[in-house]
Every structure is written in C-alpha cells, then in structure tokens.
Amino acid sequence: MSAGMPRSGRSARETAGLAARLVVAGVIIATSCALSGALAPGALASPQTQISAASEQTLETMLTADQGAARTDPAVRADEISRRFLGTPYGADTLVGSATEPEQLVVNLQRVDCFTYADYVEALKRADTREQFLASLIDVRYKDGVVAFQNRRHFFTDWAASAPAVATDVTSSVSAHAIPVTKNLNRKDSGGAYLAGLPVVARTVSYIPSGQVDSDVVGRLRTGDYLGAYAEDGGLDVTHVGIFIATPDGPVFRNASSRSADDKVVDTPLSGYLRTVPGLVVLRPVV
C-alpha cells in the first residue's frame, strides 16, 4: 500500500514558497544515495531524495514532453501523462521507510506499483519543472507535506481524507447505489495490523458494487478519475488503484498490473476489470 500547485503562471511568492518547502524537507538530490548514520525510529530529519540516473533522465524527458500539454484541459493532461507510463515494468516495494527506518523521498520511474504510478502521474500533472515535481510529489504522497513514514498516505482514501487533499471522493455522487461501510483501516480482519507502527483509523468508505457500474455511472466518470478496487477486508479500503480513461474504443482502467500476463502498466477494458472486483471507489483529483 502506498499509496496542489498551479502548473503554470507561478508567482514569485509561490516560487519562494516552493523553494522553502524543499529546503525545510531537507531534500538532497543524488543519483544514488542512502542515509548515513543512525536515526531514531520515525525521525523526520533531513529525508533524502533517492533517484537513479535512469529515473532522472526519464523525468527530464517527461517534463519536456509535458510542456505541450501544459495548457490543455485536465482530462487531456491526465491521459497524456499517464499514457507515457504504458509498458513501464511493475515493481513492488520501491519506497524506503518504515516505523524503524527513516523515510526517503523515492523517485523510481523505471518500476512502479499501482500506488506509486498514481503518485507520479498526479505529481507530473502539477509540475512544469523538476523542482515543482519534487514538491508536488511530497504534497501528493505525504500528509501535511512532511516526508515521514507516519505521514505517508498509505491508503487510497487518504488522498481525500487528509490534508492537503489530493482528490475528492465522488463515489456517492456518481452512483445512487453506492454503499457506505465503516472500516478500521490497518486492522486485519484476521487479527494484527497491515502496517506495523501505524494506528488503526476508523473511516467510512463508500463503494459502487461492480454490478451497479452501468453506462450511466460510466458516463459520470471523467478521464483522470482514480478508481480503487474495493476491499472486502475491513482493514483495507481498496486492493488496487488505476486511472479511468475514456478512449475511442471504450473506457479503460489504466493501471500498473502485477498479473503475470501483464507485469507492467497496461490499459485494461473497464468492463472486463469490473468482473474481477467487488466494486469501485472513485476519487476525483482536485487539479
């Protein structure tokens, strides 16, 4: 599990604020880095940016390509940016940090899982430069802009439930058949916690049963909406995340798939995907 700023026309005051946030976060740019010395568990001091030379090059390429999409509408921008990841290999456990290991700001564009894929797409949507991307990634991945394991948005609905909000939960507004369920996130139904060192969070999660996702519901979705596969376990909100894209050939679920037949970012026909999950949670990005 892992899991806004204007994209253009940034004022001098906004630029100064961006630089200040990067300094406060203690971001240190390096092609390969590791924290040196021992830090106390959960320490917030000087998190580093872990980014490879290959990811640096990919980021530069994507940001350059994004200049052409900088003035388009949000749906077009979401489609264009997310499409650039198609074919990127699936890779789990790329983030660094735990209750006992200091958090690092990881940028790995060579391998993504469903949550980090969403992180990078959303951060790229908000950025025209490398510095804006890093600052946006902090805002997207972490609560209150603090790079720390305890502040990481580990659950999909954290994007809507914690500040600064990345998205709005529109599940109930796109379907009258949405079902609210009270969950205790991070507490397994079988006992124990999913993530050690993190509290249990009570939250009402609404989902649309897959059988109720008809043409009317699909018609209310927008390209760029984030779709979560509803989890039946009371300790999880969703089990998988992807992006809704309306294409000329029909709606697709663009996602970093761990299926052996895929093992990369792919476009999966939404109708087929719905047959494999209990239902959908829909979050609409705020930018």
TrEMBL record:
Pfam families: AmiA-like (PF07313). Gene3D superfamilies: putative xylanase like domain, Putative xylanase like domain. InterPro entries: AmiA-like, Papain-like_cys_pep_sf. This is DUF1460 domain-containing protein. It comes from Mycolicibacterium chubuense (strain NBB4).
